[in-house]
Write a structure and sequence with these properties.
Elements (H helix, E strand, L loop, with lengths): L7 E4 L3 E5 L9 E5 L12 H22 L3 E5 L9 E7 L4 E3 L2 E3 L18 H15 L1
Antiparallel strand pairs: 1-2, 2-3, 3-5, 4-5, 6-7
């Protein structure tokens, strides 16, 4: 399981938001269920379900404010990490430049695919995290 803790953006009662360390999609985040034994999204409690939609709405608004994506994708897969979590993936029709780095969504309009070769400095990743955090406040 990946350690997202150093990329924390915000805690809620039932969910937490973390910046995904691979920023091939500018503003990509992980929404993590705080309950230790949470495995499947379909098993979320009614309280977790309600709060999840609040988290997604607030995160979506923050990302729109921070980076102006053209679309938002949500993926709750659980293939590699067996815990209830989702990937929040902003999508961009045209390349975006942030802190001198060009972020290009080459698959815009199609399913996303992580580019494992994409790299942004830790300084840029931290600036992305802080921009989202500020937009959430």
């Amino acid at each position: 399981m990946e350690d997202f803790s150093k990329y924390k953006i915000k805690d809620y009662k039932h969910w937490s938001i973390f910046l995904h360390q691979n920023q091939g999609y500018l503003g990509r985040c992980v929404v993590w269920c705080n309950r230790e034994d949470a495995l499947d999204l379909a098993d979320a409690t009614p309280e977790e379900q309600r709060e999840l939609f609040i988290v997604l709405s607030e995160l979506g608004n923050a990302i729109k404010k921070a980076f102006q994506p053209n679309w938002l994708n949500y993926a709750f897969l659980g293939n590699e990490t067996r815990h209830s979590h989702g990937h929040f993936i902003p999508r961009y029709a045209k390349p975006k430049v942030f802190e001198g780095v060009t972020f290009e969504d080459k698959l815009y309009g199609h399913n996303y695919k992580t580019d494992h070769n994409f790299s942004a400095s830790l300084e840029v990743v931290e600036k992305i995290r802080m921009k989202i955090k500020e937009a959430l406040e």
